[in-house]
Amino acid sequence: MQFSSQLLENAVNEFAKLPGIGKKTALRLVLHLVKQDETLVAHFSNTIAKMRNEIKFCNRCYNISDTVTCNICSNPMRQQNTICVVENIRDVIAIENTQQFSGLYHVLGGVISPLDGLGPEQLTIEALVNRIQNEAIEEVIFALNPNIQGDTTIYYIGRMLKETNVKITTIARGIAFGGELEFADEMTLAKSISNRITVDHYISN
Ligand SMILES: [Zn+2]
């Protein structure tokens, strides 16, 4: 792509570094900004810089936060004896959007994946185990992606919790709502059958 302006090219290159943004889209976004009032663009860039400078990770659950302890952890209405373990912050947002969970979270920052250089030390596993031992936690719900790495992580943490009497559960896995049996892979169908629930329970939910 040829540019008549180095300033324009620099801005396009910055936008193109964002995930999912190609050069063409980057150019469209930058040209949009060129047409905007200077104060609006200053506000835009200040908002991004301020977010990056001031954002924190909760000292208890590692969720993203404006304060030292996030607003979920510091909410007295949340069930303090249940922790939902997730891989990343997007998962917290997704589960919060369902409005079906009123406990606390713990963000691992990934799952154990030796091929990606991610071992237990790179994740917040130790902090999770400390929480379970010190916070009167009764249930730990694993809401990890259903794959080998997720299962390895559940197994690893489960072993560390053997000595505690905390209840360990995982979210149900199976056929997606609206999905069709014939298109489900074998593993999904197998998990759906082994994790079957009673119809009474299904209907009451
Ligand atoms: Zn928190």
Structural features, described:
This is Recombination protein RecR. With 205 residues, the protein is an alpha/beta fold. The chain has 2 domains: 6-54, Helicase, Ruva Protein, domain 3, CATH 1.10.8.420; 75-171, Dna Topoisomerase Vi A Subunit, Chain: A, domain 2. The protein is 43% helix and 10% strand. The protein contains 8 helices and 6 strands. The mean pLDDT is 91. Residues 58, 60-61, 63, 69-70, 72-73 line the site of zinc ion.
List the helices and strands and how they pair.
Blueprint: H1 6-16, H2 23-35, H3 38-54, E1 56-57, E2 64-65, E3 82-86, H4 89-98, E4 104-107, H5 125-134, E5 139-142, H6 148-160, E6 167-170, H7 186-194, H8 199-204
Parallel strand pairs: 3-4, 3-5, 5-6
Antiparallel strand pairs: 1-2
Helix pairs in contact: 1-2
The structure holds zinc ion.
**Highest CATH level, the class of the largest domain:** Alpha Beta
Proper CATH architecture of the largest domain? 3-Layer(aba) Sandwich
Count of all domains? 2
Counted beta strands: 6
Primary descriptors:
single chain, 205 residues, alpha/beta, Helicase, Ruva Protein, domain 3, Dna Topoisomerase Vi A Subunit, Chain: A, domain 2, 2 domains, four-stranded parallel sheet, two-stranded antiparallel sheet, 8 helices, 6 strands, 43% helix, binds zinc ion, zinc, Rcmb_RecR_Znf, metal-binding
